[in-house]
Amino acid sequence: MASEKVELPVAERPVEEPTPSPSTEEHEQPQKKSSPLEKITSLFDNWYYAWEILGIFLSGAAIIAICIVVYHFDGNEVPNWTAYAPGRAKPFRLTINSLLSILSVLGSTCAMIPVTKGLGQLKYLWFMEQGRKLADLEVFDSASRGKVGSAQLIWKLRFKHLAVLGGLASLLALAYGPFVQNLLVVEIQYHRADNNALLSYTFSYFYEPINVTGTDSALRFSVEQALKDTSAEWATPANKCKTGECVWEDYYTLAACSRCTDISHLLKRTCTPVVTSSDGFSDTGGCNLALPNGLSFNSTDLAGQHSNPHRTTMVMNTTMHPLVHNYTAPLAFVQSIIGYPHGDSVSNTSKPFIITQDSPVSAHECAIIPCVQRQSLTLTRFTEGTEVNPNLPATDDIIPLMDIIETFDNYTAREDGYVTVDFKDPSENKHISEQQKDKYSQPTILPSTYAGMRNYFDTILNGYVWSSPDATAYSISSLGSAVPSIHEHTLNHTWSPFYCEGNETSQEGVPCGMNKIAAGLTNAFRLWAWQIEDEGSRSVLNGTTKQAEQICTAQWQYVSAPVAVWVLGLALFIGVVIKTRRANIMAWRTSPLATLLLRLDPDSREHLKDWQHMGDAELKAMAQELRLRLQIDESGPRFVRETT
Question: What is the pTM (predicted TM-score) of this model?
């Protein structure tokens, strides 16, 4: 029987390798020369782990460069780097944050080279250890490509495999850039620039009123603003500070000092039962408060107005005989008695009441006298973390920090009407600066000026406050603003702390109001000298102006993220090298060709014969069931299916 020749299908025919003919060899094209870039790339490809070593080296160098930059500029001014280009009017600018950002991108990119390649190599080592689910291949691939895959890998491995280091490094790389940016922060600091800061002071007050009893309108305004206590402008001495940051050395100036004594223990309370009329618009009884010199609530003219004098809640008087002080012709002298609502509650301060047996009361005797004060003043701008001295308030964002270091209050009212303050002259006082020595004169106040101020205070510090039975507000009987302001702030506890709180004492109520009047007077004296047109006669203290500068401040704790990423990458690289050598396989890393060329055993191919008809979800489900192991023998590496 004749044998028939079997025809193979085209797809199954062996492919014959064409044999080059002599003519073909003669016309064969010369090989294309490799470019320099291809030569460098091939060099790295031929040298195992060259890319990983380069990445570790460059990322470490980037961290070192970042630390050098931060260390160099820590505590220094922010640099201004510019470069001009032809045809461009404005220069190109590079900020220090931009430089750190460039180094950050370089460092994080290079640090991920050993991480991604290490995770790629570990997927082969993972399958060599034992049979694994085919789906694990996708988990490792995803981890080498992104952050979500890294998180999934960490969750799958439960921190029990070398690959976890790569996943952690990949996730920590998210913080690499932000942490580097926070390594160096910029703060506004003020440093001495020049000596163009001017501050007022004076050793005399020679304002000449039009009449004997007149006072300077600026002085009256300053006192009124001090009693209102709603603005900081009156409290800050006249000055010139262009930057809002200035400092002056200690200086002396003519001032007014307040001296108050609590005489509440001298009060005598006399009470009768309170009887209110049926219509509620009149009453009798209550308590009278009286001092030994005759000052009392009954001394007011309420009785002449057919009102109950015991409804008086506060009285201030400048004419009664002193009980504790013995000053000769002080600028101001006042005695006060004040009663408070039951329980001294702020909620009761707007309600009329009658002084009764259990009503809280207090009395003070105060004097304002001429003096000389040694002060220090610093103007600063508010910044976060600024320690604010409560002696003076802030005006906008400028905080005046004043300290009264020393006080000389021994004054003399001479027979000719001049008032002088006994004070050591520059020959004896070592604290007087060279600036003040040149313009020093004995602290003096003009007779007419002094008389005018005394008359002014006799007017504004006399009066009383009473509550009406048919109204919810207090009534004021006073020719000036001092009595109602002191009464309101005292009852409502709304005095601001400056000039009332210090390192040694804390005052409130009437004494606090008198302190503010004295401070207003002091600044009025200095304002008068500040406004003198003749510069040769004007008393001005030169200080130091501080200029704002942007200063770099290092926050070294933020170098932790870049260092952690680098250390994890290095540890992963070393671990991968050791495991690869022990497994005796090549470094395939992230190469897709290695995965493509790995063979499947016949059993696995039979199980996967219909894979081309499956969608993504079906492929994942099948991969969860199929367990493979990477096996290497004389036939080469291949995936072998495990059935157990």
Answer: 0.62
